[in-house]
Structures are given as C-alpha cells and as structure tokens.
Protein: Methane monooxygenase PmoA-like
Amino acid sequence: MIFKRIFCVLAFCQWVVLVAYGQKVELKETASGIDFVIDNQPVLTYQTAVEDVPEGIKKDFAKSGFIHPLKSPSGQVLTRIQPKDHYHHYGIWGPWTRATISGREVDFWNLGDQKGRVDFSHVLSKKQAGGAAELNVRQNHLDLKAPESERIAIAEDLRIKVKPADKGRYMVDYTSTIETTIPGGILLDDYRYGGGIGYRATEKWGTDNSTILTSEGDTRKTADGTNARWIIVEGETDDASGESGILFLSHNTNKSHPEPLRVWPEDNYNGIGNVFVEFTPIRHESWELLPNQRYTLKYRMIVFDGEMTAVEAEAYWKAFVK
Structure:
C-alpha cells in the first residue's frame, strides 16, 4: 500500500511537471522518417528511408536508420550527415566498427569497405502518452560477406523517447538492445570507434566557436580516451542566446561505465576542427556477445539553447540513473 501511494505521488508529480512545461510531444510520419514534434515544431527525425548520396559518391554510403536532423528548442540544427570527410557519418547513430565473427573481421561502421552496415528494418511500436512520445524500431546489423550469403549478424531494438524538460529544454532517451543468434557469438573488438552513441555535430561548429566539457573536467584538448559519465557539447548558433548544445548522459548500468570517449582533436582535417564525439564502450576492452542473449546500453540527451553548467549536467545525470 505504501509503495502504491509513493508510485501514485511520483506519477502525479511527473504529470504536474509536464503540465507546467505546457508542452506535449507528438509523432508524425513522413515519406522519409518519423518526426518528434513539440508544440507543432519538429525537433528530431528518425530516418526510415535510405538517404541517397551525392552524384559521384559510392552508393554503398547511402543509409537509413539514424537521427537527423536534431534541433535545439529554438530550431537550430545540431546534427550533420554525409560530410565530405566522412560520408558514412549520420547525425546520431551507433554502429560497431571492428567485430570478429567466426574468425572474420566485419565492419558495420565504414560503409565504403562493403563488409557490413546497419539499416532500419521496421517499426516495432509507437506511443504518445503523458506529454511524451516513444518510438521503437528494429535495426539490422548486416554481415555482407558471410560465407553462405548476406545475413543479419546483430538485431538491434532501438527505443527513442522524447519528453519536455525544464528551462524550455527537452530530453531524448536513446536505448539500444542488441542480440545475435550466430552460433559461437560475436566479439566486438576493442577500438577507438564503435557502438554506443556517436554524434557528428553541425558543420557550423569548429575549434573557435564550440566547447566540450566532461564529467571529469576534461575539455576537447584532453577528453579523447578518457572515461566519463556525461559530456556537454555546445557551440555558436543563431539562437537569441548565441549558442545551443547537447548534454550526453551514460547510464551507470552500461558496459564499461563510466564510458570511454572518442573526441576528435581540435586540429583535425586541416585545422577546421569539426566536432565528433562518441561514447565507445569497447574502446579499451573487447565485448563478447553470446548467442541468444540481450545486451542493453542506455543514453539520454538533454537538448538546450544557451549554456549548460557542470552543476546542471551532474544533476541531470543523477536523475537519469536514479
């Protein structure tokens, strides 16, 4: 009875908070994907259709199953796809890079190598309730060079849930559950890229107009290869405040938590300083996926305009893992 009363109080409080924000999230299906819409403004799109590549680029780089665009509350686009330096980068996504299957190397990340890829398969469920919206999809990690024929190496159930947050912000829960049925399983080899959640930021951000800060106090100069509970990525935009950003949170039940980071250095690609960050649970040690077992990684994003302080980030992380 006491538990029931506590649950009811918490549920009521959540409802009151959502009403106080005065916002609700809806799902709208389009020809290219599924939009999450807050007060009639699309803030995030999960792309179900294959995004074609520019003329002259290998068709292998065309892809579905990623988040783009993701916008700040004021409508600033914070993601980027198919940049010329990495045509296989797609907004927010998380393919594994070096995997060993029956003694063979399979790469689901570098599409141009034609060894593997990850694509949207089908919608599992959609839900709108309590001011939030949730989408569950199946993504297939394909082994393109399997001895017999192309096959599904890893089935991934991806859950994306969007709901309003305080100060006009909104939060995105990104939960990935993976499973393989291949006899002998799969070894996700240790490497600086792969899996988790990766983010290729807007082309507007570079060394001079964006910043990175982790839960351990590391900046862009020192964050690569370190472990963190959270990472703030923010930069200059056309918002009235002058900047926008995303706080990425790693759940404490995740593999290798606090999770290793891949953060591009400031002088990458001719000194332009393009921004890429990723939580990479296999950066320092391999991960064995046993057949017919499910493994889950949980992340949350807080999308904002203006600035995000370290104190706020830590409070968001504690609420996430609580």
